[in-house]
Amino acid sequence: MASEATPTAYIMPLSQIECGYHAYEDAITAIQDHQRLEGFVCTISSKQRNPRTTSVVGLTLQCNQSGRYRQWSNKKGIYNTSSHKSNCPFRARIRYNRYDNLFHLKVLHSSHNHDRIASLISSSALRRQSQQRFGQERLLSLVEIKAQGKQLTARQIAEQITREHPGLLINALDVFIFKRKLRLGRNQAGTSTQASGQVEAPRTRASSVASAAASAAASAAASSSSRSSAGEPRKQEKAHEEGLRRLQELQNAVAKLAGSVEALQASHQATQAALMQHYYIQPPPQVAPSTATWPAASGHMAQYNGPFQVTAPAPQVSRTPGPGPSPSSSQMSSQAGSSQPLKWTYYRPQ
Question: Is 278 in contact with 323 (CB distance < 8 Å)?
Fold first, then answer.
């Protein structure tokens, strides 16, 4: 296997396929068929879509052996397999041109740095591409017809299909996988019919795989529905138990909250009683209102029309000593200084 990319000589020149196509699938088929005839495998690397319409506007294709494996620090060995990636530089591009409404194919790098495939049927990628073009349902139906009677082996069935369809790549392993799919689908269909009590009609040689797939899906749905119906009472019982458990937890939480509220109320009342007992002050004594009458206009007061003042003694406030600390001398002096006589000013009416 070559380690460097050398110019690859093609039997059919690439210029014959580098043109415009009405659909990008046609361009993919053209480049893949060209590489398959030359002994290489071309796969899709990435797709570009229009963000507004989500339609495909471009593709990038590369060789099956492009890229390289990740190097692990604790593993210095090199993969020695037929599928080893050699970082092949082959690249092709498909772009949509809105002016001519065509998908144009362009080979960016036409060289490969590895040998050609000796046998096309040995490549799983080529077999998968050919089987997808042939049709998976059609191929399954063909394998089912040839596998009836159990007279042919998987290798013989693959050889017969290859002779009848030269463009199709299939080997014994693919036939074995298809037969296993058919067998699993038939067993599921038989189980569903036995559970329902119905008798399955005899299968014809031309029965399609679509019916087998439909019966398998129906059997899976029936089995799932039967399991769900059987487990429905148990689920309801579990849900009821879970609901009762959560209700009990909520009731316990509410009871704890009620106890806490009662304790807070009792503590608040006790605090209020202690404060009233510690800082209790007697209400001020009732002072009789002072009354004044305007003196009679006699003597020297006959000519006096100005205001006169009446002074009443200030009320005395007494404090009942409680169990708390006695007030300081400064507090007592401030209280004494604040007791000032009350004054009223009267004006003679005009």
Answer: yes
